[in-house]
Amino acid sequence: MPDVNVGIVGLGNVGSGTLAILAENGEQIRLKLGFNLRVKIVCSRNPDAKILPKGLGPVERTRDWHDVVTHPDVDIVAELVGGTTVAREIIEAAIQNRKSVVTANKELMALAGAEIWERAIAAGINLAMEASVAGGIPIHAVLREGISGDRITALYGILNGTSNYILTEIERRGADFEEVLAEAQRLGYAEADPSADVDGEDARSKLAILAALAFGEKITPTDIFTEGIRRISPIDFQYADRLDHTIRLICAARQTPQGLLLSVRPALIPKNTILASVRGAYNAVWVRGQYGGDSFYYGQGAGSLPTGVAVVSDLMRVAREILSGSPERVSPFAHPRLGEYNPIPVTLQRRAFYLRFRVKDRPGIIAALSRILAEKNISLEAVLQLPSDSKQDLPFVITLEPSVEESVQEALRRMEGLDFLVEPPLALPIETAL
Amino acid sequence: MPDVNVGIVGLGNVGSGTLAILAENGEQIRLKLGFNLRVKIVCSRNPDAKILPKGLGPVERTRDWHDVVTHPDVDIVAELVGGTTVAREIIEAAIQNRKSVVTANKELMALAGAEIWERAIAAGINLAMEASVAGGIPIHAVLREGISGDRITALYGILNGTSNYILTEIERRGADFEEVLAEAQRLGYAEADPSADVDGEDARSKLAILAALAFGEKITPTDIFTEGIRRISPIDFQYADRLDHTIRLICAARQTPQGLLLSVRPALIPKNTILASVRGAYNAVWVRGQYGGDSFYYGQGAGSLPTGVAVVSDLMRVAREILSGSPERVSPFAHPRLGEYNPIPVTLQRRAFYLRFRVKDRPGIIAALSRILAEKNISLEAVLQLPSDSKQDLPFVITLEPSVEESVQEALRRMEGLDFLVEPPLALPIETAL
Predict the structure, then answer these.
(1) Coil, strand, or helix at residue B154?
(2) Cys bridge to A152: A214, A322, A423, B212, which one at CB 3.0-4.6 A?
(3) Residue B391 catalytic?
């Protein structure tokens, strides 16, 4: 069999992991494939700075990505630079030159994946993106082929390792968000500007890709209701624990009679569910199928080598498809064409809520709050107060019976003027579907 | 595009689930594939007894499987009868007639999968067996393609739903094995003859298939060290709990410097590992990759519809491969040819152990037992005794520091003559690798 030749653009974190695996595990890969997967050319902005791992054979080097996408011997281009500008040019140029594409780019695929895929189909080449979501979990292979016969009704994910690390550290150590974030930054788990992680945007891109894959709809990431984890404090884990729950940043996609509901937000989840056991920088995806029931997938969220495995596995699959003459055999989105997504406000849903208040203690607080809730036809389920030293910043929690979120939000707005509130109430949904 | 035609042999549990999904979810399947997956003919021993679901279009019926495997229009034969005799004839006849094969048959695939696959390759057709292990978990797709770039170093599974149900009910209710088994039989979770489930043979077949898939070796199931769960009692869960562990029937496959080590046996696993959260009739697989790290897969172990999803997803994949002209694109075992497996006795491994005794109370018991252990150079880690009413059937536990199992087994044999033992000691390994 002839070789299949790969050109790699970007030798950062993911690119180095990919090359290390191709070099070290090359013999097993060759045995599995029955042919050679050769690295023909690599491109990085500073090609002299990086020493390539041994065992790759002769590899051409360049600083100009055009050399990769136009290389006559290259069959597959791996775009591993990230971002939505140059990366898009690289991928589009590769498609124009009829090279198949493997990418780890969540942001670009969330933003323009469907459009890029249509160009790929038209050009008769393949586009693979396993590495774009949850590097260490082959969730694309699962949704695209493994359970393709099922009809997915809901998908829940923990898709941002940094947020999950921070939340589980707040839980474990009882430390504040700011303190844990600062430590995560020192350890390199969080970036200097952490907002993409802790405000939910990174998770939102990943949810947009997984929802497209699972439900066959073209999602605009900015249509997704998104809330970050900055307001979660140790006291919230103590109250959640009292309710036999914990708190995670949950990416949710659910089919409802009104349509597909999408959200990224911190939520209370029962302690005895398997999602609650996801700690540290791990990712997980919970899938509910109409026929197959519940299944669950867990692994490293990121990292050079786990993401490298996803890139290499994609390269192997695409290489097989090229040699078997069927490069575009399966759409990366499982569905051959994505339908138009009609965003439905999650706030129209009925669900149970956790409301956490901090108040200056005085008589009549519960009466004032419950009056406002009653005016919006919202029923209290319980009022919880753990022992506290402070009279000036007294936390307590009200849980609500399932209520339409819009009414809850209106009630919260009416509470804004109450002079005993030290800060606006924190409202978290309680996930009962898991 | 032309239709791809399926012939189904066997309309039992899995066959009915498969037909129900093909009928109900047919439109989405057609959309995903871009062509029709048609049920052309079905075979069951009593074809008049079963009414086919609506929505399949015209379907031929027969009592003779030869009509399916020789049908000129059939492209894929789904063998859903089980067992190793007729099923093997059906599959071999299908291959001879150049039909691709989808099977749910763990027993046959564990016994002769490699051989059957070689015939399939020679005939240029495909053989798919996602449904043969853990119906609700697409673990074949994960190992075959999803993480194919990784080098797997260990795989741990909970692969028998009946045993896991029984163990977790013993744990939850404190009831004896026999009582829980009888109830499981009443509820239909266990068969009248439960031995294949509770003695580990069913799990052993599944481990043989997964190990072949993950490590590329041709495993003979009877070479696998196998122990069932009949001796596990509520007291073992109490002691395990005291050690912050629980007990599961663990299928293990580990690469060691000496070779591949395989076992199916009840073991203590730490409570805070994700495998410990697998309860009831669920299955799970934990995979450790040299590059990707740990990943975990969880879902229904069996059942008409979950297994049907696996069959339908395989049918979709094989149908795509037929239409794209590459029926044999990927081996069901990931590796194109399976190597010879050299069985290594698990008893040569060093590991920590849990020994549970039942004794008639009298002085000198610990002295007698610890003398025998010392003679085999085995170190005690701890002696545990929970309060008990009985002096005649007093349970207690000794945990051992990591020791070569062969020495532990010799020590246990030497203990056989001790007159204070009410029954032979129960020895369970303590899994520390999870």
Answers:
(1) strand
(2) A214
(3) no
